[in-house]
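Lecture notes, continued. The same structure-token format from the folding unit now serves as the input rather than the output. Read the line below as a description of shape only.
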């Protein structure tokens, strides 16, 4: 049986157990997720594991570059002071480390991760609101809605963290 099919079967069996508390059910799901991750990682060769590590590092570097470019754009468009730029950059770095911690926390279910990330995004907006002048914040909000196409992004409804099927599943793993 493939890893994903085995996971779905076991999680379905866990769901059918009426005698479990919510805490026990969540703990069981987390254990199944860890087992699935371990099995998938066990299939990879050392070379493939190195490649995955390199891809993660590349994605992280690209994310940092995009954040720097966005901050520079805001600096120009909103005519930010150096103090404002420094405060926003510090806030971004703090949020980035918190996002990373949530993402890497194997003791959270995907829904819990989504909820915590939504909370962080609200904090991000609070940071901007605290640092920017009222006029700058209004302009920032207008820029954000214009860029994203309004609520949900340019495509309307956006799928949340973990909603997309992985390419591993498409390959029967």
């Amino acid at each position: 049986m493939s890893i994903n099919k085995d996971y779905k079967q076991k999680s379905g069996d866990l769901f059918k157990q009426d005698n479990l508390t919510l805490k026990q059910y969540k703990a069981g799901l987390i254990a199944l997720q860890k087992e699935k991750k371990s099995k998938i990682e066990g299939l990879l060769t050392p070379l493939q594991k190195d490649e995955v590590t390199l891809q993660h590092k590349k994605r992280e570097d690209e994310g940092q570059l995009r954040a720097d470019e966005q901050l520079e754009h805001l600096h120009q468009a909103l005519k930010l002071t150096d103090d404002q730029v420094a405060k926003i950059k510090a806030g971004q770095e703090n949020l980035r480390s918190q996002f990373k911690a949530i993402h890497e926390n194997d003791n959270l279910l995907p829904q819990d991760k989504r909820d915590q990330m939504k909370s962080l995004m609200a904090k991000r907006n609070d940071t901007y609101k605290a640092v920017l002048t009222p006029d700058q914040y209004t302009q920032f909000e207008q820029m954000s809605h214009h860029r994203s196409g309004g609520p949900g992004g340019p495509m309307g409804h956006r799928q949340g963290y973990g909603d997309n099927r992985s390419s591993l599943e498409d390959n029967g793993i």
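Point for the exam: Residues 1-43 form one domain.
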